Amino acid sequence: MTNADINFYFDPICPFAWMTSKWVRIVQAQRDYTVDWRFISLRLINAHLDYDTHFPEEYEAQHTAGLRLLRVASAVREKHGREAIGPLYEAFGARILETGPDEGKPFGWQGTPELAAGALTAAGLPASFTEFLDDTSRDAEIQAESDEALSLTGKDVGTPIIHFEPPHGVAFFGPVISRLPGEDQAGELWDHVVGLARFPGFAELKRSLRERPQLPSFGVTTEETGKTEDWHAGSRRLKK
Predict the structure, then answer these.
(1) Could you tell me the pLDDT band of residue 2, with boundaries at 50, 70 and 90?
(2) Rounded distance between C-alpha atoms, residue 3 and residue 26, angstroms
(3) CA-CA distance, 123 to 31, in Å (whole number)?
(4) The whole model's pTM is what?
(5) Residues contacting 22, CB < 8 A, separation 6+
(6) What does the alpha-carbon distance between residue 142 and residue 138 come to, in Å, rounded to a whole number?
(7) DSSP code for 232
(8) Among residues 10, 39, 35, which one has the least CA distance to residue 24?
(9) What is the DSSP string of 96-146?
């Protein structure tokens, strides 16, 4: 897939990337877009930070779990092609973010061989790809793709990053959404976001207050409004 309509850079651990990806899949089906699911690692792009002083205690283990799963995805892409990544990301997300609250689970549970094997099997891929969870030789490729994503937006962003109509189309971080739009709203929201991003002088529209996303991992149903929190610097950092 060399000329996708959308390049979507994701870390499988990020709940907001997951929510945005669900919206993009709706738009993809409505508009007949092609999507190239690409990698950005929160662990690698935050490697220069001291996790103990900048983040809540669970973040390092969670970000490391995301990197472990991206190593698996890198090996899958090499051996099965780019088309295999969309279903694999969907299988990761279903197990990490759609299966109930995280409370009581050990930090980093998302990057275990058991979870990876279940996702691989669900995506029609060999469970033996779990052998790549600790393959640090994959990190250079993941870092390069993360750098590619940040080159499109600047560095003060998180995940996801979307590049629409690459290589010359618009790119942006997010949008960060806590609720999934209905099918009748999905295309309208997409048009608004792309329209704003296409204005040559546009740089940023942002608020750090976010509702907890309507995802089982946060214990928030689609009938509820998640608690509003201040995600200053985009990640609930303990300090800027």
Answers:
(1) low
(2) 20
(3) 24
(4) 0.93
(5) 93, 180
(6) 7
(7) G
(8) 35
(9) HHSSS--TTSPTTGGGSHHHHHHHHHHTT--GGGGGGTT-GGGHHHHHHHH
